[in-house]
């Protein structure tokens, strides 16, 4: 098949978490532009609904699904709903995440549980439900949004719990890839650098110059910068 056709997602269905804004929103747009029907899941159901409206204007189907990724019942429920409506799940992007700053010696236990809960357990629960659907079909591709914080310690902000959660996402991804790829399901992660989104908006004012200076391109990323890499990983181009 010609290479550009291998990037096409026409006839595929996709599920994106954290899709109401930021990186998840930009990746939703990319999947829809490539031809996929997209289910937009986020704890912010109102913005997910708006995003779905915009996606429908591209001529594909879109579903807005309010979802808290730490609740296994909700996660299983939204995947079941996609299968009931569309009959298949080909692509999943797990982008829902949170970040809180604190010096390691002061991290409250509740913050540790919240960060690890959303960023690591949430990704696990989503992958598990997505993987079950895809393994039953014998095909599918999952992309988890990790972070460069999986491998390096960003400065000047301090968030040991965030860094640990993202390192966990990378190793979880490798493990599921090793378990599932022989049965047709690929699992990859993307590790963005500093990216301008609502998550980083507040920190940019104080730390933006440090982040840019520590980045070889001397600028922060934009969510659009990640669209090509994500499309490559979920499409047959990276088979
Ligand atoms: N912005 C960056 O610089 C950067 C860098 C590396 C990695 N990341 C990662 O990329 C992902 C997206 O980040 P972003 O910058 O777009 O953040 P963002 O805050 O702009 O968007 C995150 C989205 O996730 C949703 N969300 C949060 N908790 C949720 C939950 N429990 N259930 C369902 N949805 C939930 C939010 O409502 C929001 O729409 C995150 O995993 C983040 O850790 C971001």
Q: Can you walk me through this structure?
A:
The protein is of the alpha/beta class. It has one domain (3-195, 224-238): 3-Layer(aba) Sandwich (Rossmann fold). Helix content is 49%, strand content 13%. It is built from eight helices and six strands; from the N terminus they run αβαβαβαβαβαβαα. The protein has helices at 3-6, 22-33, 45-56, 72-86, 109-137, 160-180, 198-213, 227-234, and strands at residues 13-17, 37-42, 62-66, 91-94, 140-145, 185-190. A six-stranded parallel beta sheet has the order 3-2-1-4-5-6, sandwiched between helices. Helix 6 links the parallel strand 5 and strand 6 (185-190). Helix 5 packs parallel to helix 6. The model has no long low-confidence stretch (mean pLDDT 97). The site of nicotinamide-adenine-dinucleotide has 30 residues, from helix 2, helix 5 and helix 7. Nicotinamide-adenine-dinucleotide is lined by residues 17-18, 20-24, 42-44, 67-70, 95-99, 118, 122, 145, 147, 192, 194-195, 197-200.
């Amino acid at each position: 098949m010609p290479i550009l056709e291998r990037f096409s997602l026409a006839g595929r269905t996709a599920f994106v978490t954290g899709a109401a804004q930021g990186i998840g929103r930009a990746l939703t747009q990319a999947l829809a532009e490539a031809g996929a029907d997209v289910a937009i899941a986020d704890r912010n159901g109102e913005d997910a609904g708006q995003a779905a409206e915009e996606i429908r204007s591209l001529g594909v189907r879109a579903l807005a699904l309010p979802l808290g990724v730490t609740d296994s019942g909700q996660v299983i429920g939204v995947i079941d709903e996609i299968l009931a409506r569309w009959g298949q799940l080909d692509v999943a992007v797990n982008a829902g995440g949170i970040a809180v700053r604190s010096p390691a010696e002061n991290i409250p236990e509740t913050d540790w549980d919240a960060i690890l809960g959303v960023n690591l357990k949430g990704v696990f629960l989503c992958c598990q439900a997505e993987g079950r659907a895809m393994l039953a079909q014998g095909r599918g591709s999952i992309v988890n949004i990790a972070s460069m914080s999986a491998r390096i310690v960003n400065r000047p902000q301090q968030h040991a719990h965030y860094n640990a959660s993202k390192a966990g996402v990378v190793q979880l991804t490798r493990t599921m890839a090793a378990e599932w790829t022989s049965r047709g399901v690929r699992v990859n992660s993307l590790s963005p650098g500093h990216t301008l989104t609502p998550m980083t908006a507040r920190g940019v004012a104080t730390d933006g110059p440090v982040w840019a200076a520590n980045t070889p391109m001397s600028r922060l990323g934009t969510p659009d910068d990640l669209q090509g890499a994500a499309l490559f990983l979920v499409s047959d181009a990276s088979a």
